[in-house]
Give the backbone structure.
Amino acid sequence: MKKIQFLIIGLVLIVSCTKEKVNENIPNGELVEETQELLSIEEVNSYIEKQLKEKGDVLWLKTPANILWSAVKHGGGYLNIGYGTQVNFSGQKSSEVETIKENILSILEANENKAKSALVTEEQEVLQYIEVKVSSLKTIKELQKMDKIRYMEPSSYTFFLKNEEIQKNFGCARDGRPVNPNDYRVTNPGSWIPWTFDIHNIPQAWQYSTGAGITVGIIDSGISDSQKFLGSNFNDGFSTGRTVEKLGTFDSSVVDDCGHGTAMSAAIAGPRNDDAMPVGVAYNCNLVSYRGTGDVLLDSRKERRSVSKALMELADRSDVKVISMSIGWVWTVGNIKDAVKYAHSKGKMIIAAGGTSTTFTNWYAVIFPASMKETVAVTGIRENGKRCNICHDGRKIDFTVMMQRDEDSDRTMPVLGYRSDVRNVVGGSSIATATTAGIAALVWATNPEMTREQVLEKMQKAGEYYPNRSNRYGYGKIDVLKAVKQ
């Protein structure tokens, strides 16, 4: 598997000079409706990049109306609206919240000349958001005048990356890769221990915890049906009495056709097998895999809706303690943000990737949703303690995982491959995140009655910089042996 790079920013090559004008006739000497100018994709992207560099996010609700409208139009006309000043997550309708929603729909009906039922394409009552179809600039302007709207954003603007083909399949690789003999060692009953594990004292921690009794949820591209060690042979070797579930919100299939989700699941929970295959961090934990994405980028309305739903379903499960998300996007996505808060309110520890990119975005810090205070943000580092060659860092990072050799950036962490007969080598903040999710399971398994805050405190106290925090690497590397013995 090629190293997973999280390509973030670049100027698009598609330049549109389309201009749309309406009501150019001027009856009775007066302009009926102002001229509407559709900005090009290049112009919208220029605004987005400026916002990211200056503010670290795109505040779509406060974006000039013509820019928001242009982004919505380029994205097929889909607009997400989060209504109400805050979400109480009860799902119970209050008269105030219902009034706000009805006012939104009235504006849409008046300006779009369509019935409300024809305008709403999706609704989520617990998270208090609706997705609607918008064609008129006037609609955007009227909605921006309203109070008590949390967010208003284009739900399907997918033109922010340089290469559309890369964007559609980013982070995907299904071919196996050879493992350097110096990057693993063999343990009973025949498993391979990745070199990265010894750096964090993970094998030593197995004397006290193997993750048994803890369920980890992962939202990614699913699990390959060709990898038996994450299927029929999930209980293999020293891994016993546990379960793996494969669910999906992305489409009707739960099967990974990308490869990324399989690699991340392997890092978390691959069995301590007797077949000379790499073992996972928490080799006795339970695993619930959600196919919520097609790749690692949360750039489409389908992926954003699917991830939001997967978060809520995992949040509602009493057995799930940890949620791993080696996925993300460069600006905040409202319906995912609220779903993260929902899962956090249910006591889940949500571990998210700090970001991986190319030279296009060396200036960018921590991506969403790792940028949220409700998540645990993780990045990868090299043996020399500096960030991996494609990883992000910054003040919002909580932990690091050493996962890249100094002398060869392609020598990262060995994991199970897409097929049962191959192995992979995977890097970036993605593998760092999955590793940390496994570590959290090990710590939690020492006392399943602990709260998220108690588990997180043990992880922090075992960090290399504790009691201090690095502005770039948070608490740094976790000594897992120390964490499980506290």
Summary: The chain has two domains: 27-166, 168-485.
